[in-house]
Amino acid sequence: QQQVKQSPQSLIVQKGGISIINCAYENTAFDYFPWYQQFPGKGPALLIAIRPDVSEKKEGRFTISFNKSAKQFSLHIMDSQPGDSATYFCAASGGSNYKLTFGKGTLLTVNP
Amino acid sequence: KAGVTQTPRYLIKTRGQQVTLSCSPISGHRSVSWYQQTPGQGLQFLFEYFSETQRNKGNFPGRFSGRQFSNSRSEMNVSTLELGDSALYLCASSLAPVSGNTIYFGEGSWLTVV
Q1: How many other CB atoms are found less than 10 A from the CB of residue B4?
Q2: Among A95, B13, B21, B96, which is most buried by a count of CB atoms within 10 Å?
Q3: Residue B34 — very low, low, confident or very high, per pLDDT cuts 50/70/90?
Q4: How many CB atoms neighbour CB B82 within 10 A?
């Protein structure tokens, strides 16, 4: 059972555009929702994270929007740059189980 | 501060052999978890250790095992390797196994089974 569903699988955006990646979860016990960025040959690195007590969190060009009632959260990358080209993973954890459950990932390509 | 260190970075093994991967967590981190990453299945949780005790285990066969030492360093072992075990194995560490604590990943060990 996939507990975190991520879409789209791949995304191509022009430089300066907005990249949007969506995730939906099923487990209402989840209380921590991080996004990880992974470049080829590297391990995933934490990008930004949110807890359900806020609906939005912004760090620079990266924003997480969170909809608790819909059990959905999304990553928005404003003014996308070629250096943002990477694979992005949403994840969730919480309850008695602190391990991260990951989405399948989104391969983002930002064309110059 | 050094990050999570994994060794070896790349290895090739033959079907039926066994392999041991090593992980040194960030200094002061006592929780270590392991994930398998493949193109088809994405990132899948293998197991998690805290204070030398396995606290959590993912849905993997018994061929996959691990342990943690008193200095928080961890090893994972895969016995009787199968072709499908070819993957990137990622180790991650955090201060403690509490939801919300940032989990830091190493660069992984690339295992190819031939």
Answers
A1: 22
A2: B21
A3: very high
A4: 12
Q: Residue A11's beta-bridge partner residues?
A: A108
Q: Does B45 touch chain A (CB under 8 A)?
A: yes
DSSP E strands in chain B: the ranges are: 5-7, 10-13, 19-24, 31-38, 42-50, 53-57, 64-68, 74-78, 87-94, 104-105, 109-113
Percent of chain B with pLDDT over 90: 87
Q: Give the Cα separation of B69 and A44 in Å (integer).
A: 24
**B91 close to B34: Cβ distance less than 8 angstroms:** yes
Of the partner residues A32, A42, A89, the one whose CB lies closest to the CB of residue B100? A32
Higher-pLDDT residue of A1, B93: B93
Contact between residue B113 and residue B82 where contact means Cβ atoms under 8 Å apart: yes
Reading the block at residue A107, the tokens are 């391969």
CA quadruple A53, B26, B56, B43: dihedral positive or negative?
positive
Mutate to test the interface with A, among B5, B23, B43 (most CBs of A within 10 A): B43
Note the pLDDT of residue B41.
Answer: 85
pLDDT of A29 higher than 60: yes
